[in-house]
């Protein structure tokens, strides 16, 4: 019996599942591929219209005008996999996310605990399905052949390494992570399955198709050992301090908070990390604890800075009763980045630290009390700006646009204006039911005011005034 047994939980519909879609409505996920917008996953209702992966989005909309399109969100998919990996920690500590759309668990030592392989697989399947995921399960002595079977739709268990070639022999060659040109050349030679390749001499395959093909065949047959990276849950800081006597005095609470923050700073230094959010619970006798959530404008591990902000919150938080204990928790860790300073900057008493000032205002007035104008990832002028709790936006295009937009575009006569050469065509919004197709021009009114107007490319082709430049 081999020392390891890897169970692959493959999620074939993960790109759709992260959006929590309804199966009875036609919807699809798309992504950019080679400069084209292509469908990558579809719901059964969309498939009934003939929509399939690889279809251009405009062709999909032609087949179903009511199709809902969602851009693929790979960070959200990875977050979902991490959540499932945490579920898997209830079965084994040996978990890997190295393979696409899959969670792999090394379960050999867990079989007796859960009553055998079938019972373990059934319990794991139930837990993942309860979280809204369809899952395919396959097991093998090594992670790669387990993933290869599950991702090919084969729910098999091959425990003996010597049986891998027979267990995977009917898999299509296209399932191997090799160059598409190699797959086409093999198909022209009449080679379509792994069994076809395993029947041929290795040296001939290497000469004609390269060593990369042989390596993937060896991985599938278990001849090459894979050492996947193990999943680790993000570290969490938790600390608790009992008070010698209950108190409502902030003068007594501040030193205890400072000691907790020093422990937090040491924890963050050990993990080369910083944090932008933490929670402080103030316990009371026979009352629910008072919880303070502290949000920082940028991640830090400076205990003095965090202590100053925490004191601001404490001074403005009414305590319903005396405090008996303090608990500090931090689970929002980010890689630490040291802030650069100017070697020749003048450190004058009147110089304002705007970041510190803004943070203090947010602690006094509330995190959402301050708003900053930012750019949105949307080309439509009506949706291109937003208000954020922090001045973080995305890079905007090089086209010149006015900051002052009219609440609603007004019909106008372009002959009254002098049109300048600057122009911008905007065609966007087809994926969310609010499409626009416009040609924008910068123009000068008889009074010398620079205006931003557009001509509709659909409908009546009319001209509209949309904004004014300062």
TrEMBL record:
<dbReference type="InterPro" id="IPR050356">
    <property type="entry name" value="SulA_CellDiv_inhibitor"/>
</dbReference>
<dbReference type="Pfam" id="PF00817">
    <property type="entry name" value="IMS"/>
</dbReference>
<dbReference type="InterPro" id="IPR001126">
    <property type="entry name" value="UmuC"/>
</dbReference>
<dbReference type="InterPro" id="IPR043502">
    <property type="entry name" value="DNA/RNA_pol_sf"/>
</dbReference>
<protein>
    <recommendedName>
        <fullName>UmuC domain-containing protein</fullName>
    </recommendedName>
</protein>
<keyword id="KW-0227">DNA damage</keyword>
<feature type="domain" description="UmuC">
    <location>
        <begin position="23"/>
        <end position="148"/>
    </location>
</feature>
<dbReference type="GO" id="GO:0006281">
    <property type="term" value="P:DNA repair"/>
</dbReference>
């Amino acid at each position: 019996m081999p020392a390891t047994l890897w169970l692959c939980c493959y999620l074939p519909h993960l790109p759709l599942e992260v959006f929590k879609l309804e199966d009875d409505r036609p919807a699809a996920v798309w992504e950019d591929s080679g400069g084209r917008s292509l469908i990558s996953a579809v719901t059964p209702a969309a498939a009934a219209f003939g929509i399939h992966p690889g279809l251009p989005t405009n062709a999909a909309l032609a087949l179903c005008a009511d199709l809902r399109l969602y851009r693929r969100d790979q960070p959200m998919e990875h977050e979902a996999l991490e959540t499932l990996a945490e579920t898997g920690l209830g079965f084994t500590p040996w978990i890997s996310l190295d393979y696409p759309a899959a969670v792999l668990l090394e379960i050999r030592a867990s079989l007796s605990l859960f009553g055998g392989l079938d019972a373990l697989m059934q319990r794991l399947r139930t837990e993942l399905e309860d979280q809204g995921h369809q899952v395919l399960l396959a097991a093998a002595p090594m992670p790669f052949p387990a993933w290869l079977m599950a991702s090919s739709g084969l729910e098999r268990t091959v425990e003996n390494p010597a049986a891998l070639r027979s267990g995977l022999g009917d898999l299509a060659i296209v399932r191997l992570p090799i160059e598409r040109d190699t797959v086409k050349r093999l198909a022209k030679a009449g080679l379509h399955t792994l069994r076809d390749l395993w029947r041929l001499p290795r040296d001939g395959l290497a000469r004609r198709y390269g060593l990369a093909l042989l390596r993937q065949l060896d991985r599938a047959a278990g001849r090459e050992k894979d050492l996947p990276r193990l999943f680790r849950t993000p570290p969490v800081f938790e600390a608790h301090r009992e008070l010698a006597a209950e108190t409502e005095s902030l003068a007594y609470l501040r030193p205890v908070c400072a000691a907790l923050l020093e422990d937090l700073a040491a924890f963050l230094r050990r993990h080369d990390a910083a944090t932008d959010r933490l929670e402080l619970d103030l316990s009371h006798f026979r009352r629910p604890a008072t919880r303070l959530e502290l949000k920082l404008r940028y991640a830090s591990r400076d205990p003095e800075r965090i202590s100053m902000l925490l004191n601001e919150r404490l001074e403005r938080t009414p305590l319903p009763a005396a405090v008996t204990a303090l608990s500090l928790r931090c689970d929002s860790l980010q890689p630490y980045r040291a802030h650069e300073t100017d070697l020749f900057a003048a450190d004058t008493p009147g110089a304002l630290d705007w970041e510190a000032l803004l943070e203090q205002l947010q602690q006094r007035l509330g995190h959402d009390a301050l708003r900053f104008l930012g750019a949105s990832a949307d080309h439509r002028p009506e949706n291109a700006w937003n208000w954020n709790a922090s001045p973080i936006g995305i890079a905007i295009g090089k086209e010149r646009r006015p900051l002052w937009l009219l609440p609603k575009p007004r019909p106008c006569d372009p002959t009254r204006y002098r049109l300048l050469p600057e122009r911008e065509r905007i065609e966007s919004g087809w994926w969310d039911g609010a499409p626009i197709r416009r040609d924008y021009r910068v123009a000068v009114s008889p009074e010398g005011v620079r205006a931003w107007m557009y001509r509709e490319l659909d409908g009546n082709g009319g001209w509209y005034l949309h904004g004014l430049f300062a």
